[in-house]
Amino acid sequence: MKHTIRKWISVLLALVMTATVFSFAASAASPKKYKVYTSLGDSIAAGFMLPDYKDKQEGDRHIVMNERVEGSYPAIVSDSIGATTTNYLAQPGLRTRDLRMLLDPTYEGDSITKNKLGGLTKNVAGVKEDVDYSQQTMEQQRKTDIVAVSQSDLVTLDIGMNDSMITMMGVLSDFENLDKIGQLRDALSYILNDWKTDYKAIVDRIYTLNPDVTIVAVGNYNPFRQWKVPGGASVGDLVQWYYDSMNEYKASLAKEYGGKLKFAPVPETDLNAGDIKTIADTKKIDFHPTADGHRYMAEQILAVL
């Protein structure tokens, strides 16, 4: 009889342990559910260069925005969290300052902002009317963004790559000009300070519009990490500090805001560029994630949820 009791106790303990293991596994594999999800960002979050993005382009109207792009990390996240409403609001070409202006009617941006947004919106796929995009479409987009953020349970914020891209490309593609290389760190330090100001303003604005929303600050990968100069030296190493600084700042905001803001690092995002062996290869460069890159980014985001 005692042997039988001990046997049943062992069986029950095994069942309890198995249930516990499955419970932890289910918890790790199943992120929290969010009903309303908004994706804010630039062309990375928009799914630029993915097959479905290309399918949605219409000749000269090559900018796809406010649409779900299959295979993009926002689409994967949306499905994984069971969102009933998803606002795909990422726009190719946006800088942090541009997004700040779209979320805050009291902020006018800089001399580039309105002209840049106007130029982008003239090329939006699916828009046929001949209207003043530089003002009319921008104002409508601002209303759309503000309402979406105000009603969201979850926002992913993926912005900042374009802030330095023109400066980076101008210098890194001209390695023979040592004066430019020497000036790069100073230029990036200036851009970084502006980026921090604008990024923090966006976060504060989101919480002003919606104090209860959860924000995931998506990290910045180093798009130059595969570049090599003639001779084999890594270009990515020259600027890694810049992207590290951006990510460290986002991580610091996660600590500042507690559980309301989460940081999802994405350093190993797979890019379309492939292996850039020399500066001469940069004509075929593309800094956007592949389908595998988007899946990885989605996994990193879901991991913090």
The number of helical elements comes to: 11
- Distance N terminus to C terminus? 49 Å
Average of pLDDT: 81
Number of domain units: 1
* Number of beta-strand segments: 5
CATH homolog superfamily: SGNH hydrolase
Broad shape = globular
What value does the Rg take, in angstroms?
A: 22 Å
Structural class: alpha/beta
Poorly predicted runs are: 4-28
| Strand composition percent | 5-15%
**Order of SSEs, N→C?**
HEHHHEHHHEHHEHEH
- CATH class equals Alpha Beta
Say what the CATH topology is: Rossmann fold
CATH architecture: 3-Layer(aba) Sandwich
The largest sheet is: 5 strands, parallel
Commentary on this structure:
This protein has 305 residues and is of the alpha/beta class. The protein has one domain (33-304): SGNH hydrolase (Rossmann fold), CATH 3.40.50. It has eleven helices and five strands, in the order αβαααβαααβααβαβα. The chain has helices at residues 2-29, 43-46, 51-56, 73-81, 96-103, 113-121, 133-151, 165-172, 178-209, 236-257, 291-304, and strands at 36-41, 85-88, 154-158, 214-218, 261-264. Strands 2-1-3-4-5 form a five-stranded parallel sheet, with helices on both faces. Helix 10 links the parallel strand 4 and strand 5 (261-264). Helix 6 (113-121) packs across helix 7 (133-151). The radius of gyration is 22 Å and the shape is globular. It starts with a helix and ends with a helix.
